[in-house]
Amino acid sequence: MASRVDLDGKPIAAMTICMIGAGGFIGSHLCEKLLFETPHIVLAVDVYNDKIAHLLESSENKKQPWDGRIQFHRLNIKNDSRLEGLIKMSDLVINLAAICTPADYNTRPLDTIYSNFIDALPVVKYCTENKKRLIHFSTCEVYGKTIGSFLPKDHPLRQDPAFFVLKEDESPCIFGSIDKQRWSYACAKQLIERLVYAEGAENGLEFSIVRPYNWIGPRMDFIPGIDGEGVPRVLACFSDNLLRGEPLKLVDGGESQRTFIYIKDAIEAVLLMIENPKRANGHIFNVGNPNNEVTVRQLAEMMAKIYGKVSGEKMLDVPTIDVTAQEFYGEGYDDSDKRIPDMTIINKQLGWNPKTSLWDLLESTLTYQHKTYSQAMKTVMAKPTAN
Ligand code: NAD
Ligand code: UDP
What we know:
Elements: E1 16-20, H1 25-37, E2 41-46, H2 53-56, E3 70-74, H3 82-88, E4 92-95, H4 102-107, H5 109-116, H6 121-129, E5 133-137, E6 165-166, H7 183-203, E7 207-212, E8 215-216, H8 234-244, E9 248-251, E10 257-259, E11 261-262, H9 263-275, H10 277-280, E12 283-287, E13 293-295, H11 296-311, E14 320-323, H12 325-329, E15 340-341, H13 344-350, H14 358-382
Parallel strand pairs: 1-2, 1-4, 2-3, 4-5, 5-7, 6-15, 7-12, 8-11, 9-14
Antiparallel strand pairs: 10-13
Helix pairs in contact: 1-9, 3-6, 5-7, 11-14
The structure holds nicotinamide-adenine-dinucleotide (NAD) and uridine-5'-diphosphate.
Uridine-5'-diphosphate (UDP) is lined by residues 102, 141, 214, 233-234, 237, 249-251, 254, 256, 258, 296, 335-336.
């Protein structure tokens, strides 16, 4: 492997990275990137490893070029004394572990708060005490609702970026009332951000905080009834509907807006943070693609069209149906109205920009979904249902 240099032209030494939550969607892509393109060693921590099983397989007959550079440690960070030892062995800790599906925020608020705040506390503590650098995964949801959302619908200031673009060092965090338990996640993430930041200010912790904006791609969540149960995030919900040949469900009319970024673009940003500590330490980074904004309704229509193209299946005459948030998520759901990342800080510190258009990223992701799940879905749907 050619020797790697950082953004300032200095050689990058191989490091040992303790990646907590490595078996999830983002973790699996980050593991691939580190193993395929860098010399770094990954101590992968998670309770599951299905999404990284292809990286862990090795045998006499099937040697992999990255053999010896990844170890899987099956442990729950809630209650496992091995965690501190793994952090001590590492140069860098990346914490991805969290409950992060909106369907859980209002229905399992305690688990959500414990997972995103309490369970992350020992990770931060061990990093401070052992002087280990930490990259902590937060969320764009810490911004909550935009200032503009409080203006009347046709107010001209709604068009002014000052009322909706989200800036790491300026925008306030605006959450709904306590009975809107949707915000349990954002609030827990905000508090852990404040704690990490305070450890930096008072005790010298070297940290970066990542705020992902709807990173999507292969291996995100699960398809209910095939490789998981429950209500996943929107990409998997809509993929499930498409695989079943049923209309895509638009919560409250699908008026909320999101910017979607291809996981592979986002992982490039994380690798830059990993390999450029001097530029990344002490910063909070928005990581998203401001050019890929759509309403959820537009996302649904685009996915239906692209799925028709990649699967060869006929599109439904009525590809979407409206459902209320109460029906879909239950009591206490609320929504972020619009999420456009300001890119000034990540541009200045790391010179990073996203590349992939929404159409292209959906095409490659839906090709993957079709290839991975369509056969299994046919089998599931052919089974008689008990009643
Ligand atoms: P994911 O659910 O696919 O991955 C999280 C992983 O953490 C899972 O594999 C899970 O098993 C593991 N985990 C959870 N609790 C654990 C525990 N107690 N011990 C050990 N492992 C545990 O989610 P993801 O999309 O990969 O998200 C990773 C991080 O990024 C999360 O912190 C999430 O809040 C944040 N984030 C992601 C997005 C996105 O667009 N994907 C958006 C905003 C924030
Ligand atoms: N959504 C929807 N139908 C679904 C799943 C989600 O209309 O089947 C909406 C949801 O209400 C939200 C958006 O899609 O407005 C994005 O939801 P996701 O679960 O991906 O998470 P979020 O971006 O809110 O964190």
